[in-house]
Amino acid sequence: MRPDLVHLFENARVPRYTSYPTANHFGPLEAATFVAWLRELAPDSRLSLYVHIPWCRHLCWYCGCHTWIDAAGRRAGPFVERLLREIDRVAAELPARMPVVHLHLGGGTPSSVGPAGLCRIVEHLRDHFAFAPDAELAIELDPREVDEALVETLAELGFTRASLGVQTLDPAVQEAIGRIQPAALVERTLHLLRAAGIGRISVDLMYGLPRQTVASIRESARRLADLGPTRFAVFGYAHLPQLKKHQRLVERHPLPGAAERVAQFEAVAEGLGRAGYVAIGLDHFARPDDDMAEAARTGRLRRNFQGYTVDPADALLGFGPSAISDLPQGYAQMAPDLNLWRRRVDAGEPATVRGRALTAPDRAIRAVIERIMCDLAVDLGRIAADTGLPRALLEPDPARFAELERLGIARREGEVIRVPEEMRPLLRVVAACFDRYLAPATARHAAAL
Ligand code: SF4
Fold it and tell me: What is the pLDDT, as a whole number, of residue 442?
C-alpha cells in the first residue's frame, strides 16, 4: 500500500461491517418483538442457524470473542440443557418446521461440550428444523482440542466444513499471545478431518500480533498453504484492552504499527496468491475450486456475523449467549451476559435483550455496503431499482467520497462505485462513506489497517 495511505489511515478506526447498522448501534429489544418477528417469517424461508458455545479450556490473551473459561469442563453439561430449551422456545414461535440450509457452531470452542453434547445439539436441531439434504454443517475447531473420537462424531453428524483457529505457527509469537500450538498438531488435525471425510477446511491466520514479523507470518502462511486447506481467513489483531481487559497480557511485547501490519498482510496475500489461492473480499482467500471463490466470481458472496459466507439463507437464527439473529425485520441479540441468559432461559422466555428494527433505507444501505465488501463494487442504480427507494438516498457522504476519489481509493463509473483491486485493504473505509450512523473515531472499532 502507498505510504501516504498508510500514514493517512494509521489511526483510523472503522467497523468490520458484518452487519449494518453495526452492533454498537443496537438498543434494547423486547423479547415480544423478537417473537413477533419469528411468527411473521414466511414458512418456506430458508434458515441459517448459528449456535454460540461460549466455553474455552484456556484463555488466549489476544481473544476478542465472547467466551468464558471452563478449565475443568464442568459447565458444558448444564449449558447444553439450557441451550436445548432455548431452541425449543424459539422453534415454538416459528410458523412451520422450517428448512435449514446452513448450520454453524461457533464460540468459544464448540467442541467443549464433547461429542455427546454435540450429538444432542445437532439432533435436537434436526428435530425442530428440516435440514436440506445439501445443507452445510460447519464448526470452529481448536486444534489443541481435536481427537479421533470428536472427528468421527462430527463426520457422523454430517459436518462437512471445519474452521481451524491457528493464527500463527511461530513459537515466539505463540508464547507472546498465550496460545502454544505446535505445527504438528495443526497438521494432525487436518489429517484427521480429511481421513473422516471432512475436506472443506478453513484456516484462520492473524497478523499484527506481538513479536510477529513479515518473515514470521510469511513462513506460517507458506507452511499452512502446503497443507492445502480450501480457505484462509486472515484477520488483523484488534487490540481493544478497554473492552477486553485480558488483552493487556499481550502488551509485554510491542505491537506492530500500521505500516508493519500492512506489510504483514501483503506478505500473506502475496504468498497465498503464489500458492494458488484467490483473494476474496477484505480478508479471505480460497482455492479456485472452493465454493467461496465460485460465489465471489458470480456475485453470490454474502457477509454476515461470521464474516464472508456463501450461505444463501433468507434469515439467520442465533442461539446461545450473545448470538445474533438476522431476520427480515431486523437484528435480535440474545443476552451476552451469561447469568441473564440463564435466567431468561430458565424462566421460559426468549433471551433476547438487544437489537434493532431495520428501516427501508437501512436495508438499502446494508445492501450497498454488503456488495462493496463482497464485490469491491456496487451498482447504486440497481439497488435503488430493487428497493424502490430514491437513488439520492444511497449516495455516499459527498466530502468523504470526494477525498477517496482524489486518493484513488474508489471511483465512480456511471451508477457503479468501484474499489480498485490494490485498495482491497481499504474496503471498510469505502463502506464507511455510506454509513449513516458512523460516529467519528470510535475507539470500539478495529483499526482500519
Ligand atoms: S480458543 Fe478462541 S475463543 Fe477460546 S480463548 Fe482462544 S481465541 Fe478465544
Answer: 56
Asked if 430 and 291 sit in the same domain, the reply is: no
The verdict on the CB of residue 165 being under 6 Å from ligand 1 is yes
Beta bridge partners of 315: 47
Structural domain count of the chain: 2
Domain coverage including residue 410: 1-21+360-449
Minimal-distance CA residue to ligand 1 atom 3? 108
Residues 276 and 381 grouped into a single domain: no
- What band does 443 get if pLDDT is binned at 50, 70 and 90? low
Instruction: Compute, in angstroms, the gap from residue 68 CA to the centroid of ligand 1.
Output: 9
pTM for this structure?
0.95
Going across the sheet that includes 377-379, the strands are: 377-379, 416-418, 411-413
Residue 27 shares a structural domain with residue 81: yes
- State in Å: Cα 83 to ligand 1 middle: 20
Which ligand 1 atom minimizes the distance to the CA of 58? Answer: 5
Same domain, yes or no, for 302 and 442?
no
Cell of 382: 440497481
User: How far apart are alpha carbons 203 and 207 in whole angstroms?
Assistant: 13
